[in-house]
Write a structure and sequence with these properties.
Elements (H helix, E strand, L loop, with lengths): L3 E8 L10 E5 L10 E6 L2 E13 L2 H8 L4 E2 L2 E2 L8 H14 L3 H8 L15 E7 L2 H7 L5 E3 H7 L2 H9 L3 E7 L18 H12 L4 E6 L5 H14 L3 E5 L3 H12 L5 E4 L5 H12 L5 E4 L11 E7 L16 H12 L2 E6 L4 H8 L4 E5 L9 E6 H6 L7 H13 L2 E5 L8 E4 L16 E3 L4 E3 L6 E3 L12 E4 L3 H11 L5 E4 L9 H10 L5 E4 L12 E6 L13 H13 L10 E6 L5 H7 L3 H14 L7 E9 L2 H16 L5 E11 L2 E10 L2 H13 L9 E6 L6
Parallel strand pairs: 2-5, 10-15, 10-16, 11-13, 11-14, 12-13, 14-15, 17-27, 18-25, 18-26, 24-25, 26-27
Antiparallel strand pairs: 1-2, 1-4, 3-4, 3-6, 7-8, 7-9, 19-23, 20-21, 21-22, 28-30, 28-31, 29-30
Helix pairs in contact: 2-3, 7-8, 17-18, 18-19
This protein binds adenosine-5'-diphosphate (ADP) and zinc ion (2 copies).
The site of one zinc ion has 8 residues, from loops.
Amino acid sequence: MNKVQIVNIYIEHPIMQLNTTFSYFYQEKRRIERGMRVKVDFNGQKIVGFVDSTFEVDNLQQHQRQLGYQLKPVEEVIDEEPIINDELYSLGLWMSRQTISPVISCFQSMLPSTLKPVSRARKAVLENWVIIKNSEVQQTYGFDKDEILLKHFKEKVSAYRYRKLKDCGHIEVVKKEKRAEAEKFKVFDAPYSLTKEQKQAVETINKSDNNVILLHGLTGSGKTEIYLQLARQALLDDRQVLILVPEISLTSQMVKRFRDRFNSIAIYHSGLSAQEKYQQYTLVREGQVKIVVGTRSAIFMPFKSIGLIVLDEEHDGSYKQDSTPKYNTRDIAIRRSETHNCKLILGSATPTLESYARAIKDVYRLVSLDKRINQDLPKSYLVDMSKEIRKGNYIISSALLKAIRERLEKKQQVILLLNRRGYTPIVKCSSCSHVVMCPHCDVALSYHKDDDRLVCHVCGHSQTNDLSCPKCGSKMWRNYGVGTQRLTEEIQKHFPQARIIRMDADSTRKKDAHIKILSSFENQKYDILIGTQMISKGLDFPNVTLVGIFNADGPLQRTDYRSVETTFDLIVQASGRSGRSVNPGEVYVQAYDISHYGIRLAVKQDYITFFNNEMSYRHAGKYPPYTFMAAISFAGKEEEAIKDRAFEASSYFRNDSDIRVLGPSRLLKIKGEYRYRIVIKSKDKQQLIEKLWNWYEGQSINKRQLSVQIDVDPYILD
Ligand code: ADP
Ligand code: ZN
Ligand code: ZN
């Protein structure tokens, strides 16, 4: 009798949260391996699972008797070979352990959606190819290859001949996955040589026996040029290069810098179609693509041999995934750089306090660039808006107004940053002061003038604007505050001739909209770019000589432990967009709380003093980097039940003397769900993780009534 394979697989299941595998049997000859996908029946549902392990038994009946239950068969083996290689498989298991999330969710987040192991998974696009079996056919029709796309074949061969050739077996038609052609790899010379500082930095990096480097350098100090140099070395060693940027809008600029120097570049981000992602994924796996520029998820690409990883703007919050598994790209990058024994460069003008603290303690190697390449830093002015308001300037200060006028006259460009989209953030009834709230969240609705609607920025709910007040019936609404739409209108009033373009989540909803906006601004089709934090990062426009930052201290009002740091970052980063080329730049920072150290030091671009100041607050409050934290959130429709669970968890952890517990605290209601959260802190991260697992495995959770989310090293806690 034939041996039978017993296959243990991970599947997605709404009730089971824990990392258990389920067993099935497989009787065919083919070997099933770890990392392949299979189709099985689970409770009458056909679902896709990931193979974890297999073993053989001689006798299935006997094996089932030992188990005490019947196994079901694997119904279909989807992959010819494992789609998750050994490296990524163990990375997935490690990630699950570190982030306290289901193994299957880790595998899912690693794969482009066409490859994800859900039953709805779309198939790759197939194309018909003609395989020519007879070289005379090839010669007769002048084909230079023996495999031709069917549509190209039919352009040269009549339908009648085609059928004839097929019937006689001279040609065969097969379906193949549609894929992008890889280019042959080339390296072009740099247009200039590195400065002395840059050379030194490259040397230090090459010599460092620590693979993780924190490259701290002002905006415009030539970090990207260093990435290019290091990439060149890795490529000449025949290894691959991964460049990560925080936002899609930055991929195009980074790709442009790299395309000038190399070819064989793949772009990978969430804006690509499933098919495009799938193609890039395959090319990287086959080693045909040498360089990948991408956002967060590109960290999981199946490289053969990585020679360099760059995490540009390492401080950026978008490197942390905010849904399960809540991983930080930096941690994954460190792990992969260990596996591939390659350098990992964390680049930033404003590193996270965690990273800088680690660099000072030699956990990472610190490399600093202290000068800008082309110009000094822009001149920065702090504008006290409480004084301006007394002069009747509610939105724009007279100094900034004057500066904008000067730039327009000189035909130089202006960037204005206001980190709030929409027209106004609050709509209030003028007779009874009722504020219009989202029906699903504890959040005020913002007015969007573009489509004349009220929109919730948390859940996306939107409603018409012509309703009467639900409290008093009046139809008189007043708008409070300023969003990007209103600012645009206001600036246009002052400068009717100015060509203004707006970039925020509303204006970039369409595919590639961000690229169009940025390139038209770069080509000077517009004078002023107004936008949210989207425009504060990494962009390099030589003709921009003025940056204005509105409501700069607004984000300080958040209660989050990182709010001063993120406010500082935003101002420094946005300031860095000004005066990057031959013309000197200026920055105007408008704020109310102008004495705050975070604002003052940001205007001075003084990272080191800011770091020291902020570290003493973190120390006093026992916040990271002095401790490790994890947040546990409970959400559901029944407030009492949610609250009880949160209190249970908090007393559980309070019994442990190595752990400090904050909360439970009630968070804003979102999408109709009540939310409570506790935060736990510990000196030892691995211990914290062990303890979280112990707690978690003792929980019985019905996902329909309660969702529990664990966030280890939360980036934001507001
Ligand atoms: P960062 O990445 O730190 O913001 P970049 O690498 O973009 O800095 O450099 C800022 C500007 O200086 C860019 O326009 C770049 O082309 C230019 N640049 C960088 N290195 C050199 C160099 N060695 N010689 C001349 N120009 C340079
Ligand atoms: Zn009213
Ligand atoms: Zn809402």
